[in-house]
């Protein structure tokens, strides 16, 4: 063989080896790695269920559950892409309000239990002749997308959404099994439902309507099962002990079930640091000085904050009697502000008219003429109106004469420049005089309709009030000023008379009485004062806490986040160091950090709790927290699920890995790690013999408790009263006027729950059936759901009556919800279907150790 051929042959061998090595690296090694990860060192692949001679191993079930979850997520993305391209839902459904994808045509809640049932039903469907080939599945996907997404685009999206973990074969296989199982269940369920609606007879529909709408009120006495345990056999036979242990060794304890369970749930202990945002706010607030808070108030006020609305600004003049009752000559709210300076000398002169105004309220004051007329008529109320009209007419005529006589004085006064306010008053006086001359007849008519007031009496006496005292020199300029002032007053009062004369007498009196309280002058005078300006803002004391809260909010959040970040670094460092030495017995583990001391330094709270199961953890506040990364989404993962896992959907956290959870409502942030854990297991009989014996005695005590309850019910039927039959030492177990409550409550569209009776212990369907089917005044006996209490029940009322409900039932909108509630017979048929299938296929469900 020449060297060239030898070289070529060696090259072929090398290429073949490289190909085989690549196949091993990319095909065999991933499968082995996945198997090792699922099984772990020293672990086997346990069998979870068997049917028709087929064994479902844990690895197969887990892989199916994982692919089911990936398929649901992929179909959601596919549905969203279809909607974005203008498609309409044909297989999937969309919420019309939120546009969220509601269903994708297959089961949407992957779990190991559902995977087992899906594989079981798909196998049975194929045995019954139901087939779905690849062409049918592709056609289903075309309908799903309205033909708007090509096959290549679909599988490209599948690879990107599943990170290349699923291809066309895996997708078609998953959809085939899901649709076959769904078709088989629908075929078997055809006798109890059509589409999504249960098949109901008219009687079933009416019965469901009563369960939702009729409410009962009862008296009840609870006979406790534990009271009769001492009366049972403390040493049951060995055969009964073994039989009960075998029946319950694979069941977890359930406080809502009467069946005993002896299997122990997985448990864990936890250590966490709590960062309460309010504590950081309080710490930041303590560092603030009063000067800083006051400065922040002034800064915000200068920027336009804390301004009170106009309708809540308090006018100081309203609450001061001295400023709300104007004296003679003081302008009212109807007069312009320019009249005020001219009227002030009259307010301070102390004349007789001012005293009259102070002593008697203006709206109630009667002019002298009116009093004389009343005396002449002998205070005859029948002529009072005539007298008032006569006096008003005389007053109007006198005012007209006075305006004419003072015309020259007004002109002379307007030439004086010493008092600028008089110039304004003179100009207004002339305008009013001209208006008076052109509408004298109208003014006289209006004045005759307006009753006389104290203001008019003061107006008549005004000329005589301005005479100087004896021996006092008369200043011509002052006299001219006084003349101008009197003229302004007369013109202003004439304008008031002309406008108010159009009102009815009663309305005019009311307006006159209200004038001192609504005058604009005091508010206008005090608007420039510092006190009034300050009153436009909220006082510092009222907004101090608000300012402090806003000042400390951001610093508190920053301080909290910094404290958590420092603690997180310490905890992550320990987790990483521990991971390097885990499994190496020769390596010395790293020292565990002292979180209690760390929490004290950082202002956090330190706690250690456990051991807890996923059930007992419900009593801890941290159980209300959720994964921080999903807290603001609809798929928020609760703390317990993160720690204990949820099948393939949520992998449980390993020991000492720090995780962040938040309780948004309480503003609490938790930094937690798991310090210890114990896998689920079933203890040996000898280890829990006392527990098994106690379960046997409880079963025997139930019989005695039921007998006691029935004996009490019999006495009631013979005429005794329930309250008289309750022992003195059991009065706490007697409940009066419980309710009203209904048989079922609707908790969502097509979703129902048993009626809520919080006073009693865990009542169930049997209790509701006994209450609502009992005859009036009949005493009935029923146990609660876990059968630890037997209730003697006497119904007091059942409302609304059947006659009233019949009228409501005739309205289609009122009975719609009852159409979605399946009947008891349908539920029994469905359960019987499962039992029959399990029996025919030899279905066995195992619960291996650690699962």
Automatic annotation (TrEMBL):
Residues 345-375, 382-397, 523-541 have a biased composition (Basic and acidic residues). Residues 434-446 have a biased composition (Acidic residues). Residues 502-516 have a biased composition (Low complexity). Residues 306-541 are annotated as: Disordered. Residues 316-335 have a biased composition (Polar residues). This is PpiC domain-containing protein. It comes from Roseiconus lacunae.
């Amino acid at each position: 063989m020449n060297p060239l051929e030898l070289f070529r042959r060696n090259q072929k061998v090398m290429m073949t080896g490289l190909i085989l090595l690549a196949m091993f690296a990319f095909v065999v090694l991933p499968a082995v790695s996945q198997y090792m990860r699922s099984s772990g060192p020293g672990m086997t692949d346990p069998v979870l269920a068997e049917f028709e001679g087929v064994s479902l191993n844990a690895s197969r079930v887990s892989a199916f559950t994982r692919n089911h979850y990936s398929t649901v997520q992929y179909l959601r993305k596919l549905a969203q892409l279809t909607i974005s391209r203008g498609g309409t839902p044909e297989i999937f459904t969309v919420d019309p309000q939120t546009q969220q994808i509601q269903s994708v045509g297959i089961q949407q809640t992957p779990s190991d239990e559902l995977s087992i049932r899906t594989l079981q039903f798909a196998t049975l469907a194929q045995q019954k002749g139901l087939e779905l080939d690849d062409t049918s599945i592709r056609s289903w996907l075309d309908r799903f997308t309205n033909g708007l997404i090509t096959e290549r685009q679909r599988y490209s999206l599948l690879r990107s959404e599943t990170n290349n973990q699923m291809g066309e074969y895996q997708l078609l296989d998953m959809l085939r099994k899901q649709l076959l199982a769904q078709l088989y269940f629908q075929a078997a369920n055809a006798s109890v439902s059509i589409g999504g609606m249960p098949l109901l007879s008219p009687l079933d529909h009416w019965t469901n309507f009563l369960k939702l709408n009729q409410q009962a009120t009862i008296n009840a006495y609870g006979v406790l099962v534990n009271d009769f345990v001492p009366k049972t056999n403390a040493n049951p036979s060995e055969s009964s002990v073994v039989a009960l242990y075998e029946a319950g060794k694979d069941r977890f304890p359930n406080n809502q079930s009467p069946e005993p369970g002896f299997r122990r749930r997985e448990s864990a202990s936890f250590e966490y640091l709590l960062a309460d945002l309010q504590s950081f706010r309080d710490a930041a607030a303590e560092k603030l000085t009063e000067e800083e808070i006051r400065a922040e108030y002034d800064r915000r006020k200068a920027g336009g904050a804390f301004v009170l609305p106009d309708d809540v600004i308090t006018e100081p003049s309203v609450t001061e009697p001295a400023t709300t009752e104007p004296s003679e000559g003081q302008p009212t709210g109807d007069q312009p502000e320019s009249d005020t300076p001219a009227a002030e000398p009259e307010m301070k002169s102390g004349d007789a008219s001012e005293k009259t105004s102070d002593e008697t309220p203006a709206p109630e004051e009667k002019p002298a003429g009116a009093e004389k007329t009343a005396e002449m008529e002998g205070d005859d109320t029948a002529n009072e109106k005539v007298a008032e009209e006569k006096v008003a007419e005389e007053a109007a005529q006198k005012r007209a004469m006075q305006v004419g006589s003072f015309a020259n004085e007004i002109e002379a006064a307007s030439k004086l420049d010493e008092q600028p306010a008089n110039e304004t008053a003179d100009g207004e006086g002339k305008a009013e005089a001209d208006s008076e001359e052109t509408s004298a007849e109208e003014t006289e008519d209006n004045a005759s309709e307006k009753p006389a007031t104290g203001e008019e009496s003061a107006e008549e006496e005004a000329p005589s009030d301005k005479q100087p005292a004896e021996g006092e020199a008369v200043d011509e300029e002052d006299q001219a000023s006084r003349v101008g002032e009197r003229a302004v007053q007369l013109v202003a009062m004439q304008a008031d008379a002309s406008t108010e004369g159009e009102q009815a007498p009663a309305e005019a009196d009311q307006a006159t009485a209200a004038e001192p309280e609504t005058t604009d002058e005091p508010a206008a005078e005090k608007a420039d004062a510092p006190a009034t300006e300050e009153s436009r803002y909220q006082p510092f004391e009222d907004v101090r806490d608000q300012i402090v809260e806003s000042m400390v909010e951001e610093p508190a959040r920053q301080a909290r986040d910094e404290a958590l970040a420092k603690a997180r670094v310490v905890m992550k460092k320990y987790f990483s160091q521990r991971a390097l030495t885990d499994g190496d017995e020769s390596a010395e583990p790293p020292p565990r950090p002292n979180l209690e001391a760390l929490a004290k330094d950082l202002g956090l709270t330190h706690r250690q709790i456990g051991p807890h199961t996923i059930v007992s953890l419900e009593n801890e506040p941290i159980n209300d927290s959720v994964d921080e990364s999903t807290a603001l989404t609809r798929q928020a993962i609760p703390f317990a699920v993160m720690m204990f896992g949820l099948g393939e959907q949520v992998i449980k956290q390993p020991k000492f890995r720090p995780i962040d959870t938040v309780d948004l409502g309480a503003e609490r942030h938790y930094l937690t790690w798991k310090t210890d854990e114990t896998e689920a297991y079933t203890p040996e009989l000898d280890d829990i013999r006392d527990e098994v014996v106690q379960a046997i005695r409880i079963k025997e005590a139930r019989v005695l408790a039921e007998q006691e309850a029935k004996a009490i019910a019999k006495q009631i039927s013979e005429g005794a009263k329930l309250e008289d039959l309750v022992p003195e030492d059991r009065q706490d177990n007697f409940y009066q006027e419980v309710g009203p409550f209904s048989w079922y409550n609707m908790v969502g569209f097509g979703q129902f729950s048993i009626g809520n009776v919080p006073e009693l212990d865990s009542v169930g369907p049997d209790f509701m059936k006994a209450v609502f089917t009992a005859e009036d005044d009949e005493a009935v006996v029923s146990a609660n759901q876990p059968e630890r209490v037997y209730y003697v029940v006497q119904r007091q009322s059942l409302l609304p009556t059947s006659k009233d409900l019949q009228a409501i039932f005739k309205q289609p909108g009122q009975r719609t919800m009852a159409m979605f509630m399946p009947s008891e017979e349908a539920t029994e048929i469905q359960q019987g279907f499962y039992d029959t299938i399990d029996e025919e296929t030899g279905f066995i469900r195992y619960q291996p150790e650690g699962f």
